Automatic annotation (TrEMBL):
GO biological process, one term: amino acid metabolic process
GO molecular function: lyase activity
Protein name: Threonine aldolase
InterPro entries given in the database record: ArAA_b-elim_lyase/Thr_aldolase, PyrdxlP-dep_Trfase, PyrdxlP-dep_Trfase_major, PyrdxlP-dep_Trfase_small
Family statement: Belongs to the threonine aldolase family.
Entry cofactors: pyridoxal 5'-phosphate
UniProt keyword list: Pyridoxal phosphate
Keyword Zinc-finger among record annotations: no
Domain Aromatic amino acid beta-eliminating lyase/threonine aldolase: 19-305
Length: 357
């Protein structure tokens, strides 16, 4: 039409990559191919399809024959559905102050789930039995929300990883108190890669009851799952998933992605690569002779470093990354399955140039 202007937004360059989040990455080509293969023809809706059936088998191979898997759309939902299924209406969740359920889910476990979070500060994002004990009290006191679940994140929001023994200690404590252990596994693949252990070694075999299983950060378009390891720990999960608006009608497309990721070694290959890129970044930062200070252990795919504010501002002309503690200048640098060695080296070279300027 004369006088009408077209769109002005330029679409992105497919070679553009950043260190802001593993969610900035696109979908892995093998996942896209699996989606295309799952397309066409008709399949029963709402999860009674062959891809969701196959997903049950794939997850049983990872977590044991007793595992039951419920695909959902995103990680917040996996956490909310898990915690609701694990707890009565009056229940509470003990978690780290830095837990995603506390910091980044807009209160969804509390507002949508109706559950209280009882938080504990930690030095490194990891709970210990001593830290849990600070909030796991008041059982039988009607004035206190009843602690019913300990929720840990693996790998943690601070880039650290629990060992199987550390998980086992938390499970034993929780079970001894009549509580359950939930794992927010949005980055569970990065933990497995870091530990060089199968998934069940630090979940099923360590006493975990329910896992929020990650997919999106490791190469899916979207899609995560609730994996129930102890069926006696949950109640009403299928109803809760629907009530929480997480029952995909065309579930085959969520399940096909999860199958593509977890059936072979794509999940592990991708996570190992992301971790290796974080290790390369960390080594490069360490080599800057104390001109920047790395603040946390680099065990998975995240690196935390304090940068001079003026340097951060200049770096951001090219690279995106998040402030972690704006007051201290600490930033978070995340690597993804598609981060390249060249990306890391270019970032480090630019950082070194700015520090020298
Ligand atoms: C530890 C952790 N849990 C869960 C999630 C899932 O969140 P979302 O609802 O954005 O998929 C994230 C995403 O950043 C996360 O970092």
């Amino acid at each position: 039409m004369p006088g009408q202007t077209g769109p002005v937004t330029r679409l992105h360059d497919a070679d553009e990559r950043h260190f802001a989040s593993d969610n900035y990455a696109g979908a892995h080509p093998e996942v896209l191919a699996a989606l295309a293969a799952a397309n066409g023809g008709h399949q029963t809706a709402y999860g009674a399809d062959v891809y969701t059936a196959r997903l049950q088998e794939v997850m049983a191979a990872h977590f044991g024959a007793g595992a039951t898997t419920y695909p959902v759309f995103n990680g917040t939902a996996a956490n909310v559905v898990s915690l609701q299924a694990l707890l009565p209406r009056w229940g509470a969740v003990v978690c780290a102050e830095s837990a995603h359920i506390q910091t980044d889910e807009n209160g969804a476990p509390e507002r949508v789930g109706g559950l209280k979070l009882l938080t504990v500060p930690t030095p490194d994002g990891k709970l210990t039995p001593e830290l849990v004990a600070r909030q796991a009290w008041g059982f039988g006191d009607e004035h206190r929300a009843q602690p019913g679940v300990v929720s840990i994140t693996q790998s943690t929001e601070l880039g650290t990883v629990y060992t199987p023994d550390e998980v086992r200690a938390l499970a034993d404590q929780a079970h001894g108190l009549g509580m359950r252990l939930h794992v927010d596994g949005a980055r569970i693949a990065n933990a497995a890669a870091a530990l060089d252990l199968p998934l069940r070694a630090f979940t099923t075999d360590a006493g975990v009851d329910v896992v929020s299983l990650g997919g999106t950060k490791n190469g899916l378009l979207f899609g995560e799952a609730v994996v129930v390891l102890d069926p006696a720990s949950v109640d009403g999960l299928p109803y809760l998933r629907k009530m929480d608006m997480q029952l995909a009608s065309k579930m085959r497309f969520v399940s096909a992605q999860l199958v593509a990721l977890y059936e072979g070694d794509l999940w592990l290959r991708s996570a190992r690569h992301a971790n290796a890129m974080a290790a390369r970044l960390r080594a490069g930062l360490d080599a800057l002779d104390g001109r920047v200070s790395v603040t946390r252990a680099t065990e998975a795919n995240g690196v935390f470093v304090v940068l001079p504010p003026a340097v951060s501002a200049e770096l951001r002309r090219t690279w995106r990354f998040y402030d972690w503690h704006p007051d201290s200048g600490e930033v978070r640098l995340m690597c993804a399955f598609d981060t390249t060695g060249e990306d890391v080296d270019a970032f480090l070279a630019e950082l070194a140039r700015l520090l020298d300027a």
